[in-house]
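seq/struct pair 1
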Amino acid sequence: MTPVFEELQRILRKLPGLGYRSAERVALCLAVEKTELLPQLVDALRHAAERLRACEVCGNLCEDARCAVCLNPNRHREVLCVVERIPDLVAIDRSGAFAGVYHVLHGKLSPIHGVGPENLNFKSLEKRLEDGEIKEIILALSNDIEGEATCHFIQEEIIRDREIKVSRIGFGLPSGGGIVYADAVTLQSALEGRRDY
């Protein structure tokens, strides 16, 4: 193959879910079979790079300063669901089991991988709690060591002695499993079966 094709394939392999063979198939499709999609893809990627950003309130994906969830007047603003990543927010919201607002951390604490409190979206979480509108926090983080450490950090360093009910999602999710892989019924059970934290 040519160096240009190999570069395209190498970049595609960096995307989640694309191994060597999948990246090769996508690259061949774009370069040979569906060449009309290549300029459209380039334009869409450029447009996304220029317009997409993190919501200044919750960290969700948006095109303006605030995301659709934060702008929705029908959301219950006193209940906040803290998630690791945007796909977790999408999965929970798609389930229809939660009508509150979200906060995306963009990861979880993992000293072994060099992820400390300064690398996560904690400052805006603390600011939201200072406003006094939040009465309940649901910690919807993965059920593993890093998820537990992150929940503990939020409880001890962010919530501290504030009068806020804190619960932890867990019922129905497998240990070590991610939220994004759970179906709607499992997520609904997890939210309904949450326990105080």
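seq/struct pair 2
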Amino acid sequence: MAQVLVAEEIFAEAQIAAHNAAKACVPRPMIVGTPTTLLGNDIDPNKDVYYVAGGVCGFAGVKIRPARGALVAWLKKHQIGYRDDYAGGYYVSAQAFYRAPGALVQSYEINVAIAGAAAEVFRKYGIDAYVEARLD
């Protein structure tokens, strides 16, 4: 059976897991350029071409359902995340778990890894949590 921890300790454990997941994630890079024709699937070598090491941009976070319990109360108290009135539950962005210097991460793959690691920690303590993500 899982050890009983207070919400602050569970969140701290989720932050550590998220940080490790972010460091271990190697996103698939992409190259962005202008096609030679309107709907072309090639890149015009005469126009600017950009290499994006972080891959596609996107967001991810952890959804906790239902939006109640000691962890959600602690998150609300510390103004971490928000209640999702449209879809239900409580949403915490991946960025809330990853606190490295200059840590604004736009990589979809890294954000999903962060949220996945945090959600896994929450589930370990019996909290119904899952990853919610979207491309930007």
